[in-house]
Amino acid sequence: MSLRQSSFFLRFLTLGALAHVYVGARLIPDAQLPATGAATAIIALLLSCILIPMGMLARSSVNPPWGDRIAWVGLIAMGLFSSLFVLTVIRDAALLVTWLVTLLASANLPWLDLRRYSAWAVAALALAGTLVGFYNARSRARVVDVDVPVAGLPQDLDGFTIVQISDVHVGPTIKKQYVQAIVDAVNELLPDVIAITGDVVDGSVEHLAEQASPLGSLRAPYGVYLVTGNHEYYSGATPWIAEFRRMGLRVLLNEHAVIHPSGLPMVVAGVTDFGAGAFDPQHRSNPKAALAGAPADACAKILLAHQPRSAAAAAPLGYHLQLSGHTHGGQFFPWGFFVRFQQPFTAGLHRLGKMWVYTSRGTGYWGPPKRLGAPSEITRLRLRTAASGHL
């Protein structure tokens, strides 16, 4: 671990410990637990404070299968505590507002009961949300259908289908069986093109090549294309690019492919991750270079870019559609509200100038096996003919 990483992790541990102290101080006394119950709650918070960083470190510091088992426990604890912390903050804010209102209205409320019941409600909601979120995350991603109108698209290509998967995050809790279920679902859709928009893996080729191997079974008549996400660079992009190519996937590194459905030229371009240049200057993301030499008469120009914020540079270049991921749609409450501070789009289909941008909520998940309000997806996009005035 580098000095920079060590410094970050120390700050993470400190903030995590303070957050656990805050939750314990706000909930345990108000819950009016008996002595044994209070002691159990304190021990549970201490375990959570220990297990969360252990879960983050176990994958890289402990050999399988124990590394994965520790990661499972730690990441579930992270998801549970995240909800517990957020709900505690919301509870405190609600209690403060209620106190101010009653003060102004000169009203009396049974404060001891209100604080006790709200403390129990926070714990119950956090646990319920974690269980439901676990079920959602571990279920196979649903298929989401999206129609994209493209001005001037020839009638012969109306209904041309691109199936997108993104942010699978093969790693300590997502293994071969999970990936195989995604691959089977995608192949059943019989797409014309398959697009994989980054963050496929969370770990080294040595540890995860076999777990990611079902991706080599993806099939589409006009190709299976992949671009790198930020997690590829955390995991060693160069060996993973070689491994993806060995699987038979077409990796687009600021370049494009020209396909000819119905004999008509169409461009599928791809850029490296928005922040790739910080890891390798030769991989600096460049939507303009990705389009260099493409036929000017291409009936559709599709860009694969892991992060939605690549759209600002891509929109003026004549792309019709950008496919992105990265955001996970926030994955679970309340993180979707914070995505918009970094990315222009959180999820779904949007316009930027004359270009459409579709942002997938992701096909897997990252970190805690938990999804609430942001279901995972396999996206089936159909290009539709549209008059130029109705783009």
TrEMBL record:
GO biological process: lipid A biosynthetic process
Protein name, as recorded: Serine/threonine protein phosphatase
InterPro entries attached to this UniProt entry: Calcineurin-like_PHP, Metallo-depent_PP-like, Metallophosphoesterase_sf
Keyword match Transmembrane helix: yes
This protein's UniProt keywords: Hydrolase, Membrane, Metal-binding, Transmembrane, Transmembrane helix
Signal peptide: none
A single GO molecular function term of this UniProt record: UDP-2,3-diacylglucosamine hydrolase activity
Entry's transmembrane regions: 35-58, 70-87, 93-112, 119-137
Domain Calcineurin-like phosphoesterase: 161-329
Gene3D superfamilies assigned: 3.60.21.10
Pfam families: Metallophos
Organism in which the protein naturally occurs: Achromobacter spanius
An example Gene Ontology CC term for this record: membrane
CDD domains: MPP_YkuE_C
